[in-house]
Amino acid sequence: MGSVSLKYKSKSGNLTAPGDVDLGAMIPIATVTVGTSQSTITFSSIPQNYEHLQLRWIARSDRAATQDFVDIRLNSDTGANYAAHLLYGEGAAASAAAYVSNTSVGIVFMPAASSTASVFSVGVMDILDYTNTNKYTTTRTLGGADINGSGRIVLGSGVWMNTAAVTTLTIITDNASTFTQYSSFVLYGIKRAGA
């Protein structure tokens, strides 16, 4: 198989080698790892110089049940200003759901106290165009966990019906429980290519 040479235009319009082009980057902003248990995780004073944000996590809840949910609030807004659409699968079945007038967005499954010990969920949420004050803030989420074949995977989209730039993320559980030890959340800023 022959080699392929790619050329790109730089900001000045000159052709450059691929290694000379800034294709954007993910920059870690902050990390929170739970020490014992914690009911709320907050990222505040989020820098406003990125195009998008990405939140990644592993999480488990101490709720006395088999499952709980990771929810996110933007700018500490506790009003019914969030909506979401979800597709999820639980082994042999697939389902869809929609939520309106919620007080948070996210709704991503995580194991709880009655689930298999030491199993955590994983999740990734993109908070798109988070500094744009001309539209509502939208999110897309992928997450899930396997609990010996009885887990769940979720693909979701959400909206915060507010045009303010996002400066704070508050992460909570859906059932007033707490995140268990070793749950971890990392916030990244995604640079615009060429920025």
Uncertain parts = 1-16
How big a fraction of the residues is strand?
over 45%
Distance between the termini: 35 Å
Write down the Rg.
Answer: 19 Å
Query: Secondary-structure element order, as H and E?
Result: EEEEEEEEEEEEEEEE
Put simply, the count of helices is 0
Tally of structural domains = 1
Summarize the biggest pleated sheet.
Answer: 8 strands, antiparallel
Tell me what the CATH architecture is: Sandwich
**Helix/strand/pairing category:** mainly beta
What is the CATH topology descriptor?
Jelly Rolls
Overall, the morphology is globular
Helicity level: under 10%
The order of strands across the largest sheet is: 3-16-6-11-12-13-8-9
Summarize model confidence as the mean pLDDT. Answer: 87
Please count the beta strands (DSSP E, at least 2 residues each): 16
Question: What CATH first level would be assigned?
Answer: Mainly Beta
Concise account of the structure shown:
The chain is built from no helices and 16 strands.
General description of the model:
It is a single chain. A hairpin with a 2-residue loop joins β8 and β9. The protein has one domain: Jelly Rolls (Sandwich), CATH 2.60.120. With 195 residues, it is an all-beta fold. It is globular, with a radius of gyration of 19 Å. The N terminus is likely disordered. It has no helices and 16 strands.
What tags apply to this protein structure?
mainly beta; Jelly Rolls; globular
SSE inventory with pairings:
Layout: E1 8-9, E2 15-16, E3 26-33, E4 37-38, E5 40-43, E6 52-59, E7 67-74, E8 82-90, E9 93-102, E10 105-111, E11 121-128, E12 137-145, E13 152-160, E14 169-173, E15 179-180, E16 184-190
Antiparallel strand pairs: 1-2, 3-16, 4-15, 5-14, 6-11, 6-16, 7-10, 7-14, 8-9, 8-13, 11-12, 12-13
